[in-house]
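Q: A reviewer asked whether we had any structural model of the full assembly, not just the individual parts. We don't, so I'm hoping you can provide one. Inputs are below.
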Amino acid sequence: MSSTQTKSNPPKLLVIGVGNEFRNDDSVGINIARRLRKLNISAIQIIEDTGDGAKLIEKWKDQDVVVVVDAASSGSEPGMIYRFDAVKQKMPTNFFNYSSHNFSVAEAVEMSRTLNQLPKRLVVYGIEGKDFAQGNSVTSPVKKAAEYVIDLIVEEFRTKHSSVHHSH
Amino acid sequence: MSKLPAKIVKVDYLARVEGEGGLFIRVKDNEVKDVKFRIFEPPRFFEAFMRGRDYSEAPDITARICGICPVAYQMSSSQAMEDAFGVQVDGQLRTLRRLLYCGEWIESHALHVYMLHAPDFLGYEDAIQIASKYPEIVKRGLEIKKIGNELMTIVGGREIHPINPRVGGFHRTPLERELKPMIEKLKWALNASLETVKWTSTFNFPDFEYDYEFVSLRHPEEYPITGGRLVSNKGLDISVQDYEKHFQEIHFEHANALHSEHIGVGPYHVGPLARYSLNFDKLSSKTQKAAREAGLGKQCFNPFKSIIVRSVELAYACEESIRIIEQYKRPEKSFIEIKPKQGTGYGCTEAPRGILYHRYRLANDGTILEAKIVPPTSQNQKTIETDLYHFVKKNISLPEDKLTWQCEQAVRNYDPCISCATHFLKLEIEHE
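A: Here is a predicted structure for the entire assembly that you could use as a starting point for your response.
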């Protein structure tokens, strides 16, 4: 995108909250999307998604800045926050073979990278969950982490927004 | 800014956790002693959730069982309610349901063929590796899937867990002008799907066939999607209402999901292979021709070739969608008025992975007293185990990593459903 184009076309900013709202801590991405929507930041499009990788690729491929939030399950401490600058960093996908019929955020990022369909900037946040059973309550460490990630996302756009204007 | 609750580190992986399943094979003295396809996560809670709910809530609640085949749940539950109340949904409303279901078939089959099953045959770890070598092929798969999603969005209101279907029809029917632009896209998808049939037919398939009892719906005029009688290649021919007189669910200790069996017969096979083998004559001439050119007969007993059969069904669903949209005239009313009454209703439709059976017992005011839901994966569970037993027996001399790979592939032939039954597949082969 040239700087002239950028002046007439504001950058496309997107937040995708990924998760299943009926799976306790897995709902954290969805909850964050809903909380962000209430902040009425008109420049940012906010969507909720179940995390179907093929759809994620479609959703982010023509965007400028995208932030994805998802629950993680890596066996570490609940509430742990992971942050990926996905355009610069490769996402590990070592569980891909075990997925019987879907591919998720990590695979979607790598598939996008391979097909040259990544947005200009893509940040992925993962929040380590504890309870993924059926239900709609979120455990306390995940709730606390969600509060922090909301602040991080707002900060992300505040500080990086200008780089979108001038970096291309 | 809030207080940091935990340190920020790089992640090893991000994973959805929606259920777990595994595979256990015990081999002693080069003999297969035990095969267990374990499903830790059953959808049975939903049957309990349904008690005390209003009949009208069933399509929306049961759709949540699965993010890949929600339309199947909506259609089977709606039909069961309509059966209980003596309501017939026909004409354009029925056809519109078929169109929505075609969207789901396109989306699901494209995902399975391109992203999940093809890597097995091409010797790649995953579809990302295919994309690095053949980006145009993967883009084609993603584009077909996207067209299925678009169809779901127009007819169903959104692409996952559609909100538009209801008992008796739809909350709103689409305008002709909303659907027409899909024709050109579907024509592209039809051609791309026919290319998919050609592509998958070039794969190398293990020499493995089994004398399955195939069970699917059969309709006098249509390739079965939304209705028909339940038939098999071993002589079964019953109405959906009689399903439970012929099929039962059994609980085994190693799996939370119930195994289904044909009473007095044993395991049976549902899904694309069964539909195709029992309904070849109902495919269009174009898809029949594509199947023949791909080397398929009128029946197919090699589960590994299900990838070709899925591709044939993918083409059929595109062609059928074009036909429906070209003839579509928006109905005057979007649904048929429902008057609840006491009774029991039965519904069965063809989810992408096979028949999905629902039964509901209802009170006078339409309150659900009892619900029974039998998803395709639990019906195929015993058949998957049988396949693995015979496959491992035949291929016991393969190096362990190759055998493991092919066993995973044998399970993926069925595409057991994440949300309906299982998410992770962990393979364990124990040599005594």
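A: Points you may want to mention in the reply: Chain B is about 45% helix and 20% strand. Residues 138 and 280 of chain B are 28 Å apart (CA to CA).
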